[in-house]
Amino acid sequence: MISTLLVANRGEVARRILRTCRGLGIGTVAVCSDPDTDAPHTREADAAVRLPGRAPADTYLCAEAIIAAAQQAGADALHPGYGFLAENASFARDVIKAGLVWVGPRPEAIEAMGTKISAKELAARAGVPVFGGLVPESVTEDDLPVLVKASSGGGGRGMRVVRDLADLPGAVEAARSEAAAAFGDAAVFCEPYVERGRHIEVQLLADAQGTVWAVGERDCSIQRRYQKVIEEAPAPGISADLRERLHDAARRMAAAIGYTGAGTAEFLVAENGAASFLEMNTRLQVEHPVTECVTGLDLVEWQLRISEGEALPAGGPPPARGHAIEARLYAEDPAHDWRPQSGTVHAFSVPAAVAEFTAPAHHGIRVDSGVKDGAAVGVDYDPMLAKVIAWGATRADAARRLAVALAGAKLHGLGNNRDLLVRILRHPAFGAGEVHTGFLTDHGAAELARPLADAETTRLAALAAALADAAANRERAPVLGTLPPGWRNLPSQPQTKRYRTADGEEPAVAYHCTRDGFQADRPSGVHVVRVAPGEVVLETGGVRRTFTAATYPGPLTCVDSPLGAVSLFPVDRFPAPEDTTEPGALLAPMPGAIGRVVVAEGDRVREGDLLMWLEAMKMEHRITAPADGVVTELPAAPGGRVEAGAVLAVVDEAAAEDEERGRP
After folding, report:
1. What is the C-alpha to C-alpha distance for residues 663 and 469, in angstroms, rounded to an integer?
2. Which of 10, 166, 452, 630 could crosslink 655 through cysteines, CB 3.0-4.6 Å?
3. From CA 401, how far away is CA 362, in angstroms rounded?
């Protein structure tokens, strides 16, 4: 029996494992990098061991340090979570060699599935359907389009779609470079690219006695950059025959490698119903909560029980009850190429939630979060903040519950993808079950990412922010605090205030302070019902709504209402002079590390040409030329770290014009 378990991970998955251990009476140990010394998972464990440093390679990817931490804290078992070292066979062997219980499959099973190339070969021998892999050098025009994929790792890294044979060498080089940097393995291969396929995976549980369960399936087709955004169980709209074929293939895959514990077999299903094995994840999946909701199983608990030698019950897995949908809340800006956001989470809550890190006792909302109020989000780790899961009697019920829960969530301080998620869940195509890997392309990610709050809602939010701020100022006033702010004995000009939104809009509001209280001057047609610090009630068209406003350093004001959430940045009436940058300078949009640089000083570039890659939050971001010109400065060097706003390169348009005219 396990007495004390070390969780070799961070964030929401670490908190998820800690939750089950508390219920089972198992002691817990957390590990933390320097940025995570005050993180929620660190505080919630019974004990914590610091891993000096901030880079993953020095901390959560340092096998020696993690095993030493387990021994130092007296742990007798280790759970790797997902990501980091979860699918590292060498790490699993070292854990076992150190006398610890490894909560996961045998190292040999991990190794067998360690690369997609070998996994596909093994699947074919086991009679599992697979797409034929192609060596990049053998791809012909007839094979297009193809997907270049890294053989190791996952998360969408090292993947490129190629539709033109001329683009293949560059795509292969880029994929190899990214794969080597992310996974330490530059091997890549090609396979047919299915334009509108469905990504369906089967949850597996297998014990050491040879019993293998296919615990239902999940649809994970809605993705951005080959990374999942929305997941649901059961997969909507698939036939009983396809479901059984997928379950049978997954069981055969697990049996072929003597699998134990929890794992997932992933398949790509074409529009004609043809299915092909993609890979097997030899660990817990991010999207496991939807399976837990519809089956009532605690998959982490079964990982622990199986590692202690317990057998799965006779009779097979429980059937699915109802439907569950999960949405991943990311700190990223989907309207600007999914740009990650870093900073402080000033406030985070989902008022609709009835459960945390466990399936609800009845239909409702579950939240698995890696952050709490005041959490700092850096650039060293994945940008996922939380997972919000709805369990309902039907798919439509779950989708409605989840959309409302997300729309009503309080998430202050960081740009995020919440509005995109809500629009996906409310989209008619999603409601009809028309989900596939091209969903965001077909329906327009930019359109889906539009703020839920329209221009009128933003103006009302700005008025509420201004009035709440005025009330707070009067409450703090040392003298005459009972007078309304800005009150005049005689009629005067209205009080005005201007804000800026993340999209660059600048709503301006105006109000009067009278004997009868506040009156809105702009926007017009608004009746001010009640004003207090942090809360304002406004009436428009005979309908009253409450707006809550919270102010943070920056300055930043976040306004929440039934009409949508709005983030506002007060515009100073007397702004300080702005720093000037050299014309043509390309500034880092976020902190990060410089990856590959593909140009040199003196190179001529065209608008949109790739200059370099910036790596942040486990993703690569293209830095491209803003216009035709000559690269006159290139201070960024591969491997170097930069802060947001640092000059990465200078592209001089005038130099290009002079060159064309023959001037020196």
Report:
1. 58
2. 630
3. 13
Same domain, 442 and 472: no
- 502, 505, 486: which is closest to 494 by C-alpha? 486
What domain range includes position 61? 4-103
pLDDT at 184: 76
The predicted-structure confidence for 68-125, as pLDDT tens digits, reads as follows 999 999 999 999 999 999 999 999 999 999 999 999 999 999 999 988 888 999 999 9
Distances (CA, A) of 364 to 236, 398, 409, 557: 19, 8, 15, 30
Query: DSSP string spanning 545-607?
Result: EEEEEEEETTTEEEEE-TT--EEEEEPPSSPPPPPP--TTEEEPSSSEEEEEE---TT-EE-T
- pLDDT at residue 325 in the model: 98
Closest by CA position to 374, among listed 414, 338, 347, 397: 347
Beta strands in 382-540 (DSSP E): 384-392, 410-412, 495-500, 508-514, 517-522, 526-532, 535-540
DSSP string, 298-336: -HHHHHHHHHTTPPPPTT-SPPP-SEEEEEEEESEEGGG
Residue 612 in contact with residue 596, Cβ under 8 Å? yes
DSSP string, 255-310: HHTT--EEEEEEEEE-TTS-EEEEEEE-S--TTHHHHHHHH---HHHHHHHHHTTP
Distance CA 328, CA 561 (A): 22
- By DSSP bridging, strand 647-652 and strand 619-624 are unpaired
Which residue in the block uniquely carries the two structure tokens 């950059």? 225
State yes or no: cis peptide before 234, omega within 30 of 0: yes
Q: Residue 496: what pLDDT? A: 93
Residue 183: inside a domain: yes
pLDDT band of residue 151 (cuts 50, 70, 90) is confident
Does residue 593 register a pLDDT over 90? no
Residue 579, pLDDT > 60, answer no
Reading the block at residue 464, the tokens are 């509420």
Q: What is the pLDDT of residue 117?
A: 86
SS3 of residue 515 by DSSP: coil
Handedness of CA 28, 31, 34, 36 (dihedral sign): negative
Domain-embedded: residue 228: yes
Split into its structural domains, the chain has a count of: 5
| Cis amide linkage into residue 555, ω under 30° from 0 | yes
When pLDDT is averaged across residues 36-61 and rounded to a whole number, the result is: 96
The rounded percent of the chain whose pLDDT value lies above 90 is 74
| Domain contains 466 | yes
* pLDDT of 659: 58
Considering only 134-143, 423-432, 609-618, which range has the smallest mean pLDDT? 609-618
Nearest CA to 152 out of 88, 198, 241, 76 is that of 88
- Is the CA virtual torsion 317, 247, 432, 409 positive or negative? positive
Helices (H), 412-454: 418-425, 428-431, 439-443, 445-448
Q: Is residue 476 part of a domain?
A: yes
Could you say which of 448, 480, 507 is where a domain stops? 448
- How large is the average pLDDT for residues 227-237? 97
Nearest to 26 by CA among 10, 47, 42, 41: 47
pLDDT average, residue stretch 588-610: 88
